[in-house]
Amino acid sequence: MRLYHSPTSPFARKVMVVLRETGLIGQVELVPAGGTPVAPGTIPLERNPLGKIPVLERPEGPALYDSRVICRYLAEMAGGGLYPQARIWETLTLEATADGIMEAAVLTRYESVLRSEESRSAAWTEAQRGKITRALEALDARWMAHLAGPLDCGQIAVGCALGYLDFRLADLGWRERWPALATWASRFAERPSMRETAPAD
Questions:
Q1: What are the DSSP calls for 118-184, one per residue?
Q2: Lower CB density within 10 Å: C or N end of the chain?
Q3: Global pTM value
Q4: What structural domains does the chain harbor?
């Protein structure tokens, strides 16, 4: 298999963590790729027409894209433990919540670095930050027990989402507002799979 990824993408990081947690990392060739919505760069458009990473080439069919699809595929290869059937809907919903945080954070980042200052929209940025805030409130209010349970892909997604906030949107001050969630994130970040995939410019 071949994985196109960027070390600064939270979506790619989620796949990289899953590869390590499942023991499949040795079966994948890692191919650096990067770009933006306005300049696709080295993203393999012939494998993902949407122009996003990560993308996973596999021997038995077309390339897979969207981190949730790739993570589910890898988890199935490894026996499915990261998507436990007993709490599958909770795991999927938690993963979707974390992915929403990542998407809003990436869009906020794009607004500040891809647009000229005069063309930036404060209302757009605030709308994205509002999504992040509401999602963090939901995690703190409803999901702490799940986060404290056995490892699943929902937890991995949340860990990567919170790590991206620390990496790109530290001014949100989310750790001070949600200390229990911050404590969980700090502990989760100590997993070898998280330490080995921590983003850096």
A1: GG--HHHHHHHHHHHHHHHHHHHHHSHHHHTSS--HHHHHHHHHHHHHHHH-GGG-HHHH-HHHHHH
A2: C
A3: 0.95
A4: 2-77 (3.40.30.10), 85-191 (1.20.1050.10)
